Amino acid sequence: MTSHAPANDLDPPAPRKAGISRDDLLAAALALIGPHRSVSTLSLREVAREAGIAPNSFYRQFRDMDELTVALIERAGQSLRTIIGQARQRAAGSDRGVVRLSVETFMEQLRADDKLMHVLLREGTAGSDAYKQAVDRQLNYFEDELQRDLIRLAAADNGAVLLEPALAAKAITRLVFAMGSTALDLPPTRDEELIVQMSHMIRMIITGARTLAGHPPRD
């Protein structure tokens, strides 16, 4: 079993840097976490040591580890929203459809940048109240953007509407994030299976919301 003991004073000191940026500290925190190490378990001294600075220099960029972690969550959310938004735009010229392409993009990002995604998908359940609130804000951003997309896509189909589009968007967002958290513990060979499952479940939610509003999707 791999040990994740924190650095201590017996370890050889790392070279100290003259200056440090917020990005340097965020990168240092990401370098320390992994499948069995949450950012909520990191100490300020560990992050400072990884970044090659004195602990006091940390405070030039962040008040504490909570502020650093919230910054990581926000960066992960902004990055993912941008990528998913681009996927929705590409879907207009794709035969795979917006649902399938969006889910594929989500899974690709999860595998390509799993540490940052780990923060976004896991800290909301394992971290402090500040982390949970930060994750919830990111989820709300996703839900707001998805709600607008659902309304737009339905309207483009002969003026169809959805019953409670905000609730449909919330159901889809929470589903995808829960499935993404599960995927982190599974090998990439399971990705296609998860993509198919998520795509089917999302379509079920959309079909249900439209059918309840009296506008079922056309075959």
Automatic annotation (TrEMBL):
DNA-binding interval(s): 43-62
Listed Pfam families: TetR_N
Transmembrane regions listed in the UniProt entry: none
Residues in HTH tetR-type domain copies: 19-80
One Gene Ontology MF term: DNA binding
Organism domain of life: Bacteria
Source species of the chain: Stenotrophomonas koreensis
NCBIfam families the UniProt entry points to: PRK11202.1
Keywords in alphabetical order: DNA-binding
Record-given protein name: HTH-type transcriptional repressor FabR
Stretches of the chain forming a coiled coil according to its record: none
